[in-house]
Amino acid sequence: MHLKTLLFTGIYFFIFSFIGFSANADSLKRINKLNKKFLKNSAYVLIPSGSVSTYQFIFDTDDSRVTATKEVPRIKQEEINSFMMQKGEVTNSDYLKLLSYYKTKNPEKFKTLLPDTLVWRTPRTFNEPYVEYYMRHPAYQEYPIVGVSHHQAEQYCKWLTEIYHQNPDRIYKKVIYRLPTEAEWIYAANGGLRNTNYPWVGPYMRNTAGKMKANCLSFGTGRVYRDTLYKKDWNGDFKEVYIYRAQPHRGIDDENDLNDYADVTAPTISYWPNNYGLYNMAGNVCEMVAEKEITHGGSWNDPGHYLQNHIRQFYEGEHSASNKRGFRVIMQILEY
Questions:
Q1: pTM, whole model, 2 decimals?
Q2: Domains in the chain: ranges and CATH
Q3: Cβ 300 vs Cβ 146: under 8 Å
Q4: 112: which DSSP letter?
Q5: CA nearest 60: which of 224, 171, 175?
Q6: Greatest Cα pair distance in the chain
Q7: pLDDT per residue over 70-82, tens digit each?
Q8: What is the Cα–Cα distance from 188 to 312, expressed in whole angstroms?
Q9: pLDDT per residue over 226-239, tens digit each?
Q10: 95: part of which helix (H) or strand (E)?
Q11: CA 9 and chain centroid, separation
């Protein structure tokens, strides 16, 4: 009798295990089908799950707060779930859709979402055409939106989420658009590569043809070095201040190659994508992440040192804006 019980128990376990395996296989097949449908002609790419070391999140940054707060590298391995990420940064055209939506529906909110176009007005530089035309002129519609704050970027993500769920023909039942976390951003920028500093293989800022791999100042990390200065604080005490010095890249035959084709920003889909199909993860605009007052990736106005995936740059306040700061969004699927 005991033998029969064991036999039937084994049979039932096998049957239910097989049914469970079959159900999981069918579910995975359905998910892959939905993902394939979504990614067809999409502005997003699928970032697979994996892990990333957070060892270098703070290491080798240049902000004085690291010394002042005695922050140290947080050494741990962080697991990353898969997500969809925008191929390029959010464009002027993308953001204008948000403004158009609220201009008539909610004029008061519309005013709070307007970018600060005066970020282009800088001393000793004639940037008035950018002040007037950068955001709205058709020639710049595929360029990254700048002059927006972290708060405005979050509002854009919230609006995207609402718009998505208003679509009766949406592919996924429930999603959320948001800024990537710092760990997610670095993991995506690495593009599946290990022990890499940039979104591409190797330490060089130019390819074999002498072309810049990213939109930035023509400085590479090989020509950038950290120097230490001493500055008096309010109490009259001398404090260490770190700065990064650089020399212009030399040895390029074609002088026009020094700045490539971008005077300031470049179209969000330009230069070369990394292994995940993401463009401008290095250079163009430094990108805000979910954690406030932190950006990654460097910008058109930064030397190569700041374009390294793990290097942090800081800004003050979630309502501040800059002509070299933008963002890209990720879409997290909550329900298939």
A1: 0.80
A2: 43-335 (3.90.1580.10)
A3: no
A4: H
A5: 224
A6: 94
A7: 555 555 788 999 9
A8: 15
A9: 555 555 566 666 66
A10: helix 92-105
A11: 52
